[in-house]
Amino acid sequence: MTNPGTVSDVLPSNGGAKRDGENPAGLKPPWLRVKAPQRERIGAVADLLLDLKLNTVCQEASCPNIGECFAGGTATFLIMGPGCTRACPYCDIDFDKSVRALDPSEPERLGEAVARLGLSHVVITSVNRDDLADGGASQFVACIEQVRRRSALTTIELLIPDFCGNWEALAAVMEGAPEVLNHNIETVPRLYKKARPQGIYSRSLELLQRVRQGWPRTYTKSGLMTGLGETDTEVLAVLSDLRARAVDIVTIGQYLSPGPKHLPVDRFVTPAQFESFRQHGETELGFLQVVSTPLTRSSYHAGEVQRLMRDHPR
């Protein structure tokens, strides 16, 4: 989930009924309360990003883990932004449908940031750029090239959009040989019209399957949010669909509404249920890893993928 929303003490309620022993939407439960990041924890990374004029999804999507990640010297870089050509009603990233040229200096600046931060693993994501013929695939390729040039040992994880089903654009990105290819399924198919109106569930599954079939050495990853109105049974069905496409890694986290203009939270899933999702995914379905906690986000502890690569080499 590129953006499951912000953390606040009270979130809007849609009056949804309590299900499966979970908290209904309303007062945020104690397991979702996190301290606001302190300046000293995020300052060094934030200053570097400002200096190099780079965006991160950590900042643009108001991620609750920003203090922990920035303090550890990690960030998920957001390229081609900050405006997105899709207006998904769960997302806090600004909407901008105008036609905009790509910044040719962005890949070089990103490569410089990776080198200066000394990152062993970097995550690069983007806004949707449906105004571009290739959806921005060429910018992903340029970023890969710059990271490889400046920090050859850094492993690269891409979190990409669906490119509107442009499989030539996908192939161009994959020829850059990222170690991990992430594309988030986001929610269950029943809720796509409400939460992801410009997305197509089957198209996202096809993208993941094409990566597995065409570039089998790349580890594939996807993620989804809970709390948009799905049932536990539907979450398990999505996990089955992802595993049927040989996806390796899944992240599952709680949706938190950014504000009153966004979709409300339908329910707060308990930590016990998140753990149940994890156990089912890893034990019953055979994912290499399922990261499933209330505060999990797509790139949270993404560097752990290096351990998976060592344990499950390709």
Explain what this protein looks like in three dimensions:
- The protein is of the alpha/beta class and 314 residues long.
- The strands form two sheets. An eight-stranded mixed beta sheet has the order 2-3-4-5-6-7-8-10, with helices on both faces. The protein has a two-stranded antiparallel sheet with strand order 1-9.
- The longest helix has 15 residues.
- The radius of gyration is 18 Å and the shape is globular.
- It starts with 22 loop residues before the first strand and ends with a helix.
In short:
With 314 residues, the protein is α/β, with parallel strands linked by helices. It has eleven helices and ten strands.
Oligomeric state of this protein: single chain
Integer count of domains: 1
Our Rg estimate from Cα atoms comes to 18 Å
Q: What's the story with the biggest beta sheet?
A: 8 strands, mixed
Sequence of strands across the biggest β-sheet: 2-3-4-5-6-7-8-10
Average pLDDT taken over every residue: 84
User: What share of the residues lie within helices?
Assistant: 25-40%
